[in-house]
Design a protein that fits this description.
2 copies of one chain form a homodimer.
Chain A (H helix, E strand, L loop, with lengths): L15 H8 L3 H9 L6 H14 L5 H8 L4 E6 L6 H13 L5 E6 L4 H12 L5 E5 L5 H9 L4 E6 L7 E5 L1 H14 L5 E6 L5 H16 L4 E7 L5 H13 L8 E4 L2 H13 L9 E3 L16 E2 L3 H17 L8 E4 L3 E2 L12
Parallel strand pairs in A: 1-2, 1-3, 3-4, 4-5, 5-11, 6-7, 6-8, 8-9
Antiparallel strand pairs in A: 10-12
Chain A binds a DNA duplex (30 and 30 nucleotides) through α2 and α4.
Protein name (chains A, B): Transcriptional regulator, LacI family
Keywords (chains A, B): DNA-binding, Transcription, Transcription regulation
InterPro entries (chains A, B): HTH_LacI, Lambda_DNA-bd_dom_sf, Peripla_BP/Lac1_sug-bd_dom, Peripla_BP_I
DNA sequence: CATGTGTATGTTAACGCTAACAGATTTGCC
DNA sequence: GGCAAATCTGTTAGCGTTAACATACACATG
């Protein structure tokens, strides 16, 4: 059984040397052909490509990266893949990186700081060209690693704090304030809050802080609140809404602010099912502007977190700095979250 | 400005040698400590760990992988991240791999065969320990690469066809047949189909084929169908449903079969909004069993694709074969999709 | 005390590729 | 024709780590 162009999945993996022998040129020339680098005559290029194809050679990037100390990976570290927000960020990142040599590699932390630390460590051990990481809150060790890595770091989704290097996102405090103002302007008074358990989600916490801050300025307080843990789920939103409305019957709430669109949508469906007049009897709002809200019977008020744009901007920062390594860095891009009133939040009452 | 434990992000990246010098032992010993391999005395272990920590050393896996020819990565190649099905598969994969040295790396193909081919090529060039790839349909070149890679390959989500190596999934043809049978048993007659444009999605196509096959046996045909491209969206489901019901007014449909739950949910919401009696006047069913159906006003009939389980089983195959490289391979695991009637599909009529 | 058995460390040579330089050959141009 | 520049190809020496082997020393054993 000859080794030549046979289909025998030979034991020893193929190397440049095999291609070089098959095509009668040096390994270096093969390397040049396969990377389109340097001048190679058309004839040898042809020979080499044919040999590589015939053998089924796939270059070994491990060796290549070690030799050239260029690793075209961008580490993307996010809390979760299953809540519709990060896939969109990924879309933005890919849109930009697809036009470069860079390739995203994602790691998921499940909102756990220690997990984030180990994921980061794992990622850095592959010596990526850059890091895109969600949030500004990290363990000390994680911050130290990123500070010392000597590569561009972009913290995304949040700009309320001090980034290690660059940051792209919205101010969640501002988002919370903005929503509170709109709710107050619309004349709502007894406001309930439904959200995730906060220590796990700094951005939700910041929104909450901004939200209560503005309420306080208007002499208002959160009338009731309910927190859950776990992913954002429609059913959870229903349950929580039911529970909250139930226990506030003698002094009914007139607005519910949800920390994400998914539970907000659950709440909306609950209200509609139970003949509650939205937004007359009760107003509702979520957060994120996720696409599927468009299909709901009524469009939930929400605030867009500019997810695709965040991904794009972050990737652009990395790409720019990879291309020009001694560019400054420390860029901070704050996007403005746009309030969408939808059909569940009345417009401003007092135009005065 | 001393280099020692200073915070200066030194130009030259840290290597084992730096740690070795800082702790006064050989590089080899440092390597042993950092990998917990071989015997090292407690005292030197302590010194080394301290030095490594103080310097902020992160091992270089590129070099390590090259030297040991062990790369603990598992390539996971999937069509999309944004439709709720693959994140769940990822969950299953992580559940298993988290207990091993292996780490998943995902690549997204957007349902494009050529893109799959390049993503696969990129992945293989990192010499992963295994590949988990969605579907059984690939370009010839992709199949060749996988066949020659000399690593375990697990094709997931589908078992209607010949896998390259191992496969884990459900039979989509069978899923389609099963759903058709349930619909026929319930007494529905004029059935509409709403789905994705098929060439892009082989599994949806196979379900459709199984579906029509059983209809044919019962002397039935699809009465109308509508296809769209793009992600699965609630709003799309609404639109399509409206259009389809509209144009079949003189001879109304009594069942709509959707190729995924998201458009199915859109259709359900449309029907409810328009006071259509579900499942009396019209029955509905989707596919996938995604979690958020639980929060809808009425539960959509669906068929579970066992996504988490598929991920787990696939990861287990890889893990097993990495641990024991000369295990046989070629395993095929066919899971049974379970039909969930929900509230939108009547139970069997004729108990005879 | 010679011998064996650990335990703890160090040395050497890859792993597969590419940067940097060095030849060899051709081409252009006065 | 001669010399520089351009084009093509090859050689050498790593990249940072680990496998495999070699060494050194301690301790037990009969």
């Amino acid at each position: 059984m000859s080794q030549g162009s046979g289909k025998t999945p030979s034991k020893r993996p193929l190397t440049l040397r095999d291609v070089s022998e098959a095509s009668g040129v040096s390994e270096m020339t093969v390397s040049r052909v396969l990377r389109n680098r340097g001048d190679v005559s058309e004839s040898t290029r042809g020979k080499v490509l044919e040999a590589a194809r015939a053998l089924g050679y796939v270059p070994n990037k491990i060796a290549g990266a070690l030799a050239s100390s260029r690793v075209n990976l961008v580490a993307v570290i996010i809390p979760s893949m299953s809540n519709m927000v990060f896939p969109e960020v990924m879309t933005g990142i890919s849109q930009i990186l697809d036009d470069t040599e860079l390739q995203p590699v994602v790691g998921v932390t499940n909102y756990k700081p220690e997990r984030e630390e180990t994921v980061l460590y794992q990622m850095l051990s592959w010596r990526p060209s850059g890091v895109i990481i969600a949030g500004l809150e990290h363990t000390e060790a994680a911050k130290a690693m990123m500070g010392a890595a000597g590569i561009p770091i972009v913290e995304i989704m949040d700009t309320d704090g001090e980034p290690i290097d660059s940051a792209v996102g919205i101010s969640h405090r501002r988002a919370g304030r903005k929503m509170a103002q709109a709710i107050i302007d619309a004349g709502y008074k007894r406001i309930g809050f439904l959200g995730t358990k906060m220590p796990l989600d700094h951005r939700a916490r910041k929104r909450f802080e901004g939200f209560t801050e503005i309420l306080a300025k208007a002499g208002l307080e959160i009338a009731d609140s309910e927190f859950y843990s776990g992913g954002s789920a429609l059913a959870k939103g229903r349950e929580m809404t039911e529970a909250m409305l139930q226990r506030n019957q003698e002094e009914p709430l007139d607005f519910l602010y949800y920390s994400n669109d998914m539970i907000g949508a659950g709440g909306l469906l609950y209200c509609l099912d139970n003949g509650i007049d939205v937004p007359g009897e009760i107003g509702l709002a979520g957060f994120n502007g996720i696409e599927f809200l468009d299909g709901l019977p009524r469009k939930l008020a929400t605030m867009d977190a500019c997810r695709v744009e965040v991904g794009r901007a972050a990737a652009e920062i990395i790409a720019k700095r990879v291309e020009n390594p001694d560019a400054p860095g420390g860029e901070i891009i704050t996007l403005e979250p746009s309030l969408e009133f939808g059909d569940t939040l009345k417009r401003k009452k007092k135009p005065l």
